[in-house]
Structures are given as C-alpha cells and as structure tokens.
Amino acid sequence: MTYYWVGHLRVISFFGAGIILLNFSAADIVIPDTDDPGLGLPPIVIPEDSKLTKSIAKLGKKLFFDKLLSRDGTISCATCHVPEQGFTQNDKPKSVGIDGKIGRRNTPTLLNVAFADSLFVDGRASSLEDQAWQPILAEDEMGNSSVSEVLDKISSDKKYQSMFKESFGEKSVRKDTVAIALSAYQRVLVSGESSYDRWYYESEGDAMGASAQRGYQLFAGQAQCWHCHQIAGPGVLFSDNLFHNTGVSFRSHKLGASEDLGRYEITKIDYDKRTFKTPTLRNVALTAPYMHDGSLSTLEEVVRFYNDGGSDDPLLSPIIGSLNLSKNDIKDIVQFLHALNGNLPLKD
Q1: In the chain, which residue ranges form alpha helices assigned H by DSSP?
Q2: Which residues are 9's β-sheet partners?
C-alpha cells in the first residue's frame, strides 16, 4: 500500500486492488466527459429532459447528504450509500431506514450508476430521475408522506433557494429539479481506470498480478461468469443489465428469510420469479455484503455459492451449474475481482 498525490488529492493505492481517491469535497466535483468518462468505461447518456452541470451536481450532492430530506431529519441518501464504503453499507445486510425499519434488500452501490439501464434490483425504475423520489417517499427508507412535504422543507432554506437559482434559473424548488439534481450528483460517481483496465486496455503486463490474471482466464472460461457479467466491448461494467434467477432468493427463503420474488413483482411474469438484476462488478471488493439480500458476506462465499451450482430453485437459470473450481481457482477469481477496483470519489 502506498500514498501519493494527484494534484490536490491524496491517493491511497492498494497493490492489485486499484486506486482510491480521498478528500473528495464539493469543490472537487468534476463533470466527466460523457463520451469518454474514464479508462474502461462506456459513454454516459444523459436523458433529454435532464441536465449535468457542475452547479447542478453540487446541488445534488448537498441534497444527497442532507437529512432534511427524511421525515424526521435522521436519514439522508448517504446514510445507506456511504461514500467510504463504496457508496453502499458494509456493516448491514439490508438497509435500515427511518425509525430503524429494516428494508427488504441490500443497499446497491452508486458507483457507475450513471451507466445503468434500469434501477433497483427489480428494475422498477428506468432512469435515475425516475428513481430519485422513491427512497424519499418509501416508508421503510426516508418515510415522507408526500412530495410537497419535502419541497416545502427544501424551499424554506435560503441556501437551497440560492443554489436552485444558480442551477435552474429560479428559486422555486420543484419535484423534477430535485430529481435532476440528485441524478446529476450520482452521474459524476464514475469509477474506471482499475488495475484490470490498465492491464487489458493499455497492455500494462504488471498492472494485475499473476493470480488475478489466472482469475480473469477462469472468469472468461471455466467459471462462465461472463454469461451475466459481460466482458466484451471497449467499455464494460461487467453486467448484462438483465435479470436472472441464480438461486439466492430460494436459498434464503429456505433458511428462514421472507420470500422475495424479485423482478416478478414488477412484471407478474412467472419466468421472472426470483430473478434479480445483474450487478456491476466494478469496485465489487468494496461493497460487501453481497447478493440482493446481503446474505453472502465475502467474495469467496459468492464464488463458492456459484461453484456449488447455486440452489435447487425449480426456476433456476439454465446457465447456473456446478463449476468444478479448485480452492486455488476460487482464490484467483477473487484476486481478479479485487483488480476491478477503480479510482473512487469519497466524501471528505
């Protein structure tokens, strides 16, 4: 592990595990190049009815960290999406919202959410703007009873009035501008330039260690991870953005958890029962615990779960099956997954 400086940012580098940037403050917000946001990443597409500017992103960050957005002022977006923990929550299998209410699912990372085709593990939102108000109004998250209740609280703050004026040309606070601001901040949370990216795209032979390189070969071969965590293309997120039944929900229900039918709850299509969206694997070593319900604590447990063929769910995806990986194979795959850690913006 080494420390060095990039401009005014202090950097911590874990050998074989990528780079993490520290001391990321509001003034440090950099709007990514949407055509080329970072080594290994695809272009960012901004919806026609949205915006991405520095002032809007700074407004979105203030909203993101402000507990004012919750019913009783105890919960912010950052309460569950903790920057220092990969914009997720390492110490809780499932998110905990207002009044200590435990949510149904694990908190997903927001790193590289700019590239998501759908939001939530069941895909119920089609964009960040569509997603923005759902946690604010959810009774087990931020607990507000209405949009107007939240808008009134924001509007009463003179600092917000000034920032909305700067960002949108008017002091008035609207549902859509709040969503645009929150979405803008999340779109700057891009994380590429991992050890893998330097090894794969820039042919730096020593960017990944020998174990991680063996892990990549297994990932792309015998372990068949690429079926869902796609690796093809000039910019990849290691996700097909589709929904699969990998046996996790069925297993968890047999162990006593409440049944979670996943994508089926949105589509009502039988085939979608217990299917969940394939997550990105970028920065996955930072975002434990794993699976939609946080039921697996380590990457080793995840790889072993798939090595054993998932579960005996009658609707298990046909691409899931025993992999015959050795203990050393599993260690190599885990090392490769660590090599997907990229440069990471953190709250100061």
Answers
A1: 54-64, 77-80, 128-131, 133-137, 147-155, 158-168, 175-187, 195-201, 210-219, 248-254, 264-267, 299-307, 327-338
A2: 6
Q: Where do we find the tokens 């949407």?
A: 34
Element (H, E) at 277: strand 276-277
**Local confidence band at 294 (pLDDT 50, 70, 90 cut-offs):** very high
Cα gap 255→48, rounded to integer Å: 45
- pLDDT band at residue 345 under the 50/70/90 scheme: low
**Cα separation, 88 vs 314, whole angstroms:** 31
CA distances from 246 to 28, 90, 98, 249, 292 (A): 40, 22, 31, 8, 11
Tokens standing for residue 25:
């403050």
pTM equals 0.90
- Tell me the torsion sign for CA atoms 291, 296, 298, 302: negative
166 and 233 fall within a common domain:
no
Whether 229 is in a domain gets the answer: yes
Give the whole-angstrom CA distance, residue 257 versus residue 259.
Answer: 6
| Per-residue pLDDT tens digits for 30-88 | 899 999 999 999 999 999 999 999 999 999 999 999 999 999 999 999 999 999 999 99
* Residue 184 contacts residue 60 (beta carbons within 8 Å): yes
Closest CA to 61 of 136, 165, 163, 140: 163
Q: Structural domain of residue 35, as residue ranges?
A: 31-187
Q: Are residues 176 and 69 in the same domain?
A: yes
Query: At residue 39, what is the residue type?
Result: L
pLDDT of residue 30: 87
pLDDT digits over 123-170, tens only? 999 999 999 999 999 999 999 999 999 999 999 999 999 999 999 999
* Whether pLDDT at 94 is above 90: yes
Query: CA 59, 62, 64, 65: dihedral to nearest 10 degrees?
Result: 170
Strand ordering across the sheet containing 18-21: 2-6, 9-14, 18-21
Co-location of 155 and 290 in the same domain: no
Q: What is the pLDDT of residue 66?
A: 98
CATH code assigned at 244: 1.10.760.10
